[in-house]
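Students often ask why we bother encoding 3D structure as a string. The short answer is that it lets us treat folding as translation between two languages. Here is a chain of 424 residues written in the first language.
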Amino acid sequence: MIKKYLYIILFIVAIVGLSFVQYQYFRIGLNLAGVQFNQNMGEAVKDIKGELSPRNELTFLVGSVITKDDSRFNLSQDSVQDAAIYFLDEFLKEKLLQHGIKTAYSFRLFGNGSIDLLGSRKVYKQDENVLQYPVVLDGYLPVLLNDKIILELQFENVNRYFLSQLNGLTIPSIIFLIIIIVVIIWVYRSFYLQKNLITDTNEFINNLTHELKTPVFSIGLATKILKEKDHDDERELVVMIRKQVDRLKGQIEKVLELGIIEGKKGFIERKEIDLLPYISALVTNFDQLSKIDKFSFNSELIGTSYRVLGDVYHIENAINSLLENARKYSKENGTIHFLAKIEAKYLVIEVSDNGIGIAPHDIKRIFEKYYRVSHGDLHNVKGYGLGLNYVKRIVHLHKGKVEVKSVLNVGSTFIIKIPLVKDV
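And here it is in the second language, the structure alphabet:
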């Protein structure tokens, strides 16, 4: 639980930190946009001042308004003023666009004493959100009025304009930040779903083993009674049953360790051993079982020593799982072949059968937990899809390899390779 809250805190800190970094980049972007705006305005002001200096059609029209001389126009003073405002506004708009400025603005033309001579219909109020760029005119208009004339350009909420200029930076940043948050939440949620699945798996294993204990105890009790009453010709059979019951007890206890396989490597105890006597005993027991169940079994143990660094119990279980699989999936009166040999740096164990085989698309998944191959109308094979997953994990924890070769309706061969002790 502490780890859970620690991960949440780290996640929040990381998101806040990333947001702060993005905010700093955003501020830098705004500052750069402001610098660029001022540079563009400087060039625009210079251009505007240059074109309003000589006498031309625009300055003549503006001059007629500010001097209130409409004698050369067959229009009222108000109409001449409207025309001057319109043409001056169009002129300013064109010059600003030429220098990359596309935001809203207003203008006013005034002389000494800040007396307005001409201006936009809407003039912004003087406050901190309004940027002002005064242009001191020279040439025709100041001479005509015999006074200093200033053209003031005003921009309101220029930060909004800067934001629009930074959309190519801010919008992708926000989108990527949202994607990161969503992905992290999804990974976090998946992690805890997986953790819950592991918990459910462990509960399933615990329930399974406890359910198996009762029938095994009953079988053990029955064999004890049989041993007390058995005849000489039945003694061997009773001994075999007892041996297998004891083995099954051990497997039931040990299967609980499947619950700690997930994410842990310490559940096996590896030590230097010679596997040959253990494999030999295992093969002998399986050979006895083949005679009772009437299937063909032959084995080859090549070599005088199989020294590995391993856990005997789990290696035996892995080999037993392969033999049991071969028995379950073999055809009636089928043949199973067991081979153990030294090959290069490995102890190689092969279990072959002439059973139903495995389809190519299933071979890729047979080692997945709970995955079971579909066999159509074959209903007599029971299991939980844990055996081969267990085999793969045990072999990998011994730094070995697992391979499978199979042809559908012909048979399968499973190969285990465990490094010899000198190469571990």
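Translate back mentally: The chain has three domains: 2-165, 181-265, 268-423. Keep this in mind for the problem set.
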